[in-house]
Design brief:
Layout (H helix, E strand, L loop, with lengths): L4 H4 L2 H9 L8 E2 L3 E7 L17 E3 L8 E7 L5 E4 L2 E3 L1 E3 L1 E4 L12 E10 L7 E11 L7 E2 L4 E6 L37 E4 L2 E2 L10 E6 L6 E3 L5 E4 L13 E9 H4 L3 E11 L7 E2 L3 E5 L11 E2 L2 E2 L10 E7 L6 E3 L5 E4 L5 H12 L9 E9 L6 E9 L4 E10 L5 H12 L2 E9 L19 E10 L7 H10 L1 H6 L3 E3 L8 E3 L20 E2 L11
Parallel strand pairs: 2-10, 12-19, 21-28
Antiparallel strand pairs: 1-3, 3-7, 4-6, 4-9, 5-8, 9-10, 11-14, 13-17, 15-18, 16-17, 18-19, 20-23, 22-26, 24-27, 25-26, 27-28, 29-31, 29-34, 30-31, 32-33
Bound molecules: calcium ion (CA) (4 copies).
């Protein structure tokens, strides 16, 4: 390329001819414009590189004072500086970054300024200039920015696999601070349900600004699925463990990175708040309750309260109500709906009052056996969930005793066992527990008494005794003989009524001498009395 031709043809040469002294020509540039490329944010002191075809020289062909010129930058806003600032006849210049505040690719991609060479001294009006264009290179200097400072969604807790899908409103336009996540309807939280959609933008261009959603951080994050392109977050599995009874909310961080997931990273909080679903059933503390009437038949000896718990997290799903659903003949008893307290009706109707009075006045007519009712505890959730318990109302002169029986069979037939024990004890029997007999809960009966433990069971039962308790020994013998194994070991059962401490002994050695004492013959002791006693003391 011919380096001299373009400047020689420039207008500045002509101006110099008009205004300058004869024989004095203005300084001139080797190129009439210059171009360079520099990274955005380049630090102070970074040199602008002018490669081919640019020659960074200013020349003045005059001699002496007429060949001296100053070099300045115009329209530069302080971004660059040039050196040297004075030249004589010929100067190579260098331009460096002075202040990089404006070197922001996201603000502008090019910067223009002008280099001016002005003759000093008498020829001060002789000048020439060259335009410089600086192109900025984009640098990955921006992180992805989520459109919301946090994403918060409210969804119902775990339930059965559902069909409804939540729809989350998308950000209408990509501006910071716009609230986007709004759940339109309330689905059950099952696999595939959309939880939220996160969005992030990145101001950088090209790959530097290409955002992918890379992962979800936090406990139970495997229950969520994140679409790397759309930022859509869905429930990944039906066994997601989002249980309102565990926690009211679950917190995560969603990560996004530019360069398609390998560059700058940013995170945003995602909070899933759970709405309680009525998925817990009220359950009673006890399968059965025994309450004793006072002799007046108006009250119970202790407050007769049944209690059920509902483990749901919120009202009304965990609010429990009580009602009697069967056995309350003649409506004699009232169960408080909220407190669960059972009382004897005394003032609800004249007829009942009269009837109760008559019962009290005429003790002979009183049904002395226990009354059994079924009560229900239900919650106020939708739909209701409920469970039941049994209430035994026991007459004033009732005695109950919890006893353990070792019986044949593992497990034994429950109905047969109940019938056998009722015959055996003469009382009303309620079986509370049946478990394998381990052999150590009672002393071995004899040398041969241990070998068939694996065929026996321990039955824990409550026996109700009242004034009608009676043992029919013949009936008992029949029943026992029906059981071959039992009959091999048992010849006779004795019911000791008179001692006041019901103690049941099976005695195979001495059938003629029923033994009611504490040190009864150990030969065939099959029962363990003296357990915690529910006993009404009649006064
Ligand atoms: Ca950038
Ligand atoms: Ca970026
Ligand atoms: Ca419930
Ligand atoms: Ca619940």
């Amino acid at each position: 390329m011919d380096l001299h031709e373009p400047p020689a043809m420039s207008a500045t040469v002509q101006v110099a001819l008009l205004l300058g002294d004869l024989g004095n020509s203005p300084p001139y540039f080797e190129n009439d414009n210059y171009g360079s490329r520099i990274d955005e944010n380049s630090p102070q002191g970074t040199v602008l590189v002018f490669g081919d075809p640019y020659i960074t020289e200013i020349k003045d062909d005059d001699m002496g004072k007429n060949g001296i010129f100053s070099i300045t930058l115009e329209n530069n806003n302080g971004t660059f500086e040039i050196s040297p600032t004075v030249g004589e006849r010929r100067a190579s210049f260098v331009i460096r970054v002075r202040d990089n505040a404006l070197l922001d690719y996201e603000m502008r991609q090019t910067i223009y300024f002008t280099i001016v060479a002005t003759e000093v001294g008498p020829g001060g009006s002789l000048k020439s200039s060259a335009r410089v264009t600086v192109y900025l290179n984009d640098v990955n200097d921006h992180l992805p920015v989520f459109l919301q400072p946090r994403y918060e969604v409210t969804l119902p807790e775990n339930m059965t696999a559902g069909v409804t899908v939540a729809q989350v409103l998308h950000c209408p336009q990509l501006t910071a601070g716009v609230t986007v996540a709004q759940v339109l309807n309330c689905p059950q939280l099952t696999a595939g349900v959309t939880v939220a959609q996160v969005r992030a933008q990145d101001l950088d261009t090209g790959l530097f600004g290409k955002v992918h959603y890379t992962r979800i951080l936090g406990h139970l994050n495997t229950s969520l699925r994140l679409d790397s392109i759309t930022g859509l977050i869905t429930v990944s599995t039906n066994s997601h463990m989002f249980d309102r009874e565990t926690a009211p909310e679950f917190r995560f961080n969603v990560e996004a990175r530019d360069m398609e997931g390998s560059g700058n990273r940013a995170t945003v909080p995602l909070i899933i708040k759970l709405i309680d679903v009525n998925d817990e059933t009220p359950y009673f503390e006890k399968d059965q309750y025994d309450f004793f009437l006072t002799p007046s038949l108006r009250n119970f000896t202790t407050p007769a309260i049944i209690t059920a718990m509902d483990m749901d997290a919120e009202s009304p799903n965990n609010e429990v109500r009580y009602e009697i659903i069967s056995g309350n003949y003649e409506n004699n008893y009232y169960l408080h709906e909220i407190k669960g307290e059972l009382t004897v009706r005394t003032s609800h109707s004249r007829g009942k009052m009269t009837r109760i009075k008559r019962l009290i006045d005429d003790q002979e007519d009183v049904d002395r056996s226990s009354i059994t009712m079924t009560a229900r505890a239900y919650d106020l959730g939708v739909p209701h969930r409920w469970s039941t318990t049994t209430i035994h109302v026991l007459p004033p002169d009732a005695n109950t005793r919890t006893m353990m029986f070792i019986v044949n069979g593992s497990p034994p037939d429950r109905t047969q066992t109940l019938a056998m024990l009722e015959t055996l004890t003469g009382g009303q029997v309620r079986i509370k527990d049946i478990r394998p007999y381990e052999g150590h809960e009672i002393q071995p009966i004899s040398a041969s008494g241990r070998e068939d433990n694996e065929d026996r069971s321990m039955v824990v039962a409550t026996i109700l005794y009242d004034g009608t308790t009676m043992v029919d020994v013949r009936q008992l013998q029949k029943q026992l003989q029906a059981n071959v194994k039992m009959s091999e070991r048992v010849d006779k059962v004795v019911r000791c009524v008179s001692s006041g401490e019901p103690r049941l002994v099976l005695d195979s050695d001495d059938p003629g001498h029923p033994d009611c004492s504490d040190n009864s013959s150990p030969a065939s002791l099959l029962f363990m009395p003296e357990l915690p006693t529910l006993r009404h003391t009649q006064t």
